[in-house]
Each structure stands twice: as C-alpha cells, then as structure tokens.
Amino acid sequence: METSVWRKPSALLALAVPVAALCVVLGHVALYGLVHEADEGATAHAWQLLMVAEAALVVVFARRWLPRARAATLRVLAVVAGVMLANMAAVYFLT
C-alpha cells in the first residue's frame, strides 16, 4: 500500500512555508510598490527567516520520506524547488 506523501504534515509544511514567503514578497510589492530601498526592512528579514526554515524543513522531510516513498517524495521536492525558485525570482526582479 503506497502512502500519499502529499497528505503528510511534513510535506504540507514544506510546501506552505515557501508559499508564505512568496506571499510576503508579493504583499510587500502590492503595498509599497517596486521600491529599491537602501536598507533591508522587516519584510526582507521575515522572508530570509522563512527561507532558512524552509531549508531545514526540506532536509527533515527528505530524510523521513525519501527511503519510504522515493518517487512521491521526489515529486513533492520538485514542487518545493519550483516554489523556492519562484521566491528567488520574485525577490530578484521585484525588489
């Protein structure tokens, strides 16, 4: 019986954190517009903390589920990587 890795809390959390980080960036742009600030604000620090937490969550998720359900775990990790790349692109191009 194959377990659905997508429904596991560690997978949901690994997906929710980069989505939240992307919302932080897009929300900042929606509120303040495209401004190039000389100093990083609270929004930048919140994004940085979320991305560091995401790295730790991905490691925990991969260590736990990769040996059990390799293909499903790799699919989840591919989606997570895509959202993380979207985060980095948004920060690069929008701020």
Topology:
Elements: H1 9-32, H2 42-65, H3 70-94
Structure description:
The protein has 3 helices and no strands. The longest helix is centred in the last third of the chain and has 25 residues. The model has no long low-confidence stretch (mean pLDDT 91).
Please supply descriptive tags for the structure shown above.
single chain, 0% strand, mainly alpha, 95 residues
- Secondary structure: number of strands: 0
Count of all domains: 1
H/I helix tally: 3
Radius of gyration: 15 Å
Average pLDDT value? 91
Shape: elongated
Unreliable stretches, pLDDT < 50, 5 or more residues? Answer: none
Distance between the terminal alpha carbons, to the nearest Å? 46 Å
State the secondary-structure class.
Answer: mainly alpha
Order of helices and strands: HHH
Largest sheet: none
Helical content stands at over 70%
**Range of strand content:** under 5%
Sum this structure up briefly.
With 95 residues, the protein is mainly alpha-helical. The chain has one domain. Helix content is 77%, strand content 0%.
